[in-house]
Amino acid sequence: MTVQTKLNFKSDNGLRALGNLRPFYETAGGIAVLGDSLELMRKLPAASVSLVLTSPPYALHFKKAYGNKDKHEYIEWMLPFAREIKRVLKDDGSFVLNIGGSYNKGSPTRSIYHFKLLIALVEEVGFHLAQECFWYNPAKMPMPAEWVTVRRVRVKDSVEYVWWLSKTPHPKADNRKVLRAYSPDMIRLNKRKPRETTRPGGYIIKESFADVDTGGSIPPNVIEDDAAEDMLRFGNNAANDRYTLRCKQAGLKIHPARFPAALPDFFIRLLTQHDDVVLDPFAGSNTTGMVAERLGRRWIAIEREEEYLRASKFRFEDLD
Ligand SMILES: C[S@@+](CC[C@H](N)C(=O)[O-])C[C@H]1O[C@@H](n2cnc3c(N)ncnc32)[C@H](O)[C@@H]1O
After folding, report:
1. For residues 236 and 244, which has the higher predicted lDDT (pLDDT)?
2. Which of 62, 123, 132, 313 keeps 20 to 30 A from 252, CA to CA?
3. Torsion of CA 173, 90, 159, 60, to 10 degrees
């Protein structure tokens, strides 16, 4: 099946030349490349990327269509990718890794493979842990059914881990780029100015605290799959809707593990500037590339399943 697209024009974003990469498709800001990311990342020069933002296949029992790794093999499989990621990152670059937790087979106990992976990334590969963040996803299914809905001995899992790693202890970051609207309480406080007071813990709040009104509140390290925010920013979360609709029309598989636009949006704004290069080596439906394009960053997306990459073009149709 041929997918009609207005993409594939010759762009001057400089990304083809960067790693002599052959684009599967190309936009004004980025290139999507079909193939194995371990092989393809080797073509990229050292210190050429500002942010690697990705969600690799997780080690799950219930293997997804694209072949998840067994937990025991997982760390061994992941580390060569991580070494390449570290090599291509600039010294002030970040590696943001979304990784899901899981249960041990046949037991109501949790695996600790994602913690082991984190330790290996820091102790064996040499990354620094800038901050551990969480993706709050209330839409997750109450799984495994055996423990959550049948025996009722565990509660619903609603977060995924997002390890924010960096090449040096001081990655480029600016939390003023991700400020949130002040709460009504904070607006009231800013208006009437806080009174000088001592908190029970001994911390003294001074009158000058009033100067913290800098246009928004500093967000927490919990990123919500916030449809309302997406709606405000992207207009009715149109990108995801269009993607699933167009996949159905074209008879192409909808990617089973897409992350919400809010996740790459948060980290790309926090950690990069205009024209910086963002790389997703496990791109899937290319949510990362789509968000990077909207934010005026350059992007490289690598995915080894042609059908996913073909369908991911739909995300860019309204951006032409
Ligand atoms: C969890 S999904 C990523 C989903 C993506 N974040 C999104 O929003 O659509 C992981 C993807 O990695 C791809 N993948 C696995 N191994 C790969 C490899 N060696 N090179 C490139 N892609 C790979 C899989 O085909 C799958 O689509």
Report:
1. 244
2. 62
3. 180
